[in-house]
Amino acid sequence: MTDPGPARRGRMKLAARCRVATEAPAFGMGVFCLILLNAALMGAETYSGLAGEHRLLLHTAEQACLALFSLEMVLRIGAFADRPKAFFRDPWNLFDLAVVASAFVPFVRENTTLLRLLRLARVLRTARFLPHLRILLIAVGRSLPGTASFLFVGGLVLYVYAMVGWVCFAESDPGHYGSVGRAMLTLFLLTTLDGLTDAVRAGLQISRLSILYYASYALLASFVLVNVLIGVVLNSLDEAREMEDAERRDPKRPGSPPPAGPGPDAPGTDVRERIATARRALDDLEASLPAAGPRTDRRLEASHSGP
Questions:
Q1: pLDDT of res. 256
Q2: Does the pLDDT value for residue 150 go beyond 70?
Q3: CA distance 17 to 80
Q4: b or e along 34-65 (b: 16 or more beta carbons within 10 Å of the residue's beta carbon)?
Q5: 98 exposure class (CB count in 10 Å sphere: 0-12, 13-18, 19+)
Q6: Which of 8, 23, 117, 225 maximizes the CB count within 10 A of its CB?
Q7: Torsion-angle region of residue 47: left (phi > 0), alpha (psi -120 to 50) or beta?
Q8: What is the pLDDT of residues 255-282, one digit of tens each?
Q9: In terms of pLDDT, which residue wins out, 27 or 150?
């Protein structure tokens, strides 16, 4: 069995050195501060006077941030040089790569509005360095199927009540219930219970039964459905927390660096290196046997020739 080729050993050395840099606490803190600085620069550009007076300084700072972000991505990619497929299995790596690489796309660089939106997406990269924020984002993503079902049920309830409101209040209050669209907009605003008192007073002037209409709608839309949505989000939050804990316990999760251990040049880091080391030890042992043979024979003859 032969040793790994020079190219493979070079990739292993590169990956080990890049991992030492990217796994350092100072590296993560530096990237986190760089993201906050980039966000502050974007905020400063919204002030026309400040942006006009220090346009060159802000542009230079933005280019410096882009260069540092690019260097960060090069180091992160280099940390996976010995297993490049693992880099693309991590969603956070793909997100970071897309955000940073978009600044070099010709069409994006020429579109100021799109470029600013993509620069704003860099702020979301703070989730990589804030575990609790990362859990919240994962929870929001996992709650989307349940939220879609909630929106369907909520829209159905809103439509039914809007039709009932159009039938009952269209003639007396056309400004709010003149059509099903206006009625749905009115009821949607009442979901927050803002203006519900004025709506009830106006309804009582039309019919005393309107109190049942508004009371049932407030109970169903503002309390039952909202609590159902909160339950969906909390359930997704628990699932996201369990997923994060499972990934921390599993050292072989996609995109995670290999566990700390001896470097690529140390014996035992690779199966082939272990086999090669064992073969060399056996060869040395075999080479030493002929030299030890004559001395062993002399000792046996001396023992037989004694008194």
A1: 47
A2: yes
A3: 11
A4: bbeebeebbeebeeeeeeeeeeeebeebbeeb
A5: exposed
A6: 225
A7: beta
A8: 444 444 444 444 444 566 677 777 777 7
A9: 27
Long-range contacts of 72-80 (CB under 8 A, 24+ apart): 72/31, 72/34, 72/100, 73/97, 73/100, 73/101, 75/18, 75/21, 75/22, 75/27, 76/18, 76/22, 78/14, 78/15, 78/17, 78/18, 79/15, 79/18, 79/19, 79/21, 79/22, 79/257, 80/15, 80/257
DSSP tag of 24: S
pLDDT higher than 50, residue 244: yes
Query: CB under 8 Å to 17, separation ≥6 — which residues?
Result: 78
Cα–Cα distance, 3 to 225 (Å, whole number) = 65
Question: DSSP label at 128?
Answer: G
> What is the tens place of the pLDDT at every residue in 85-127?
888 888 878 888 888 888 888 777 767 777 777 777 777 777 7
The b/e string for 209-238 (b: 16+ C-beta within 10 A; e otherwise) is ebeebbeebbeebeeebeeebeebbeebbe
Q: pTM for the full model?
A: 0.54
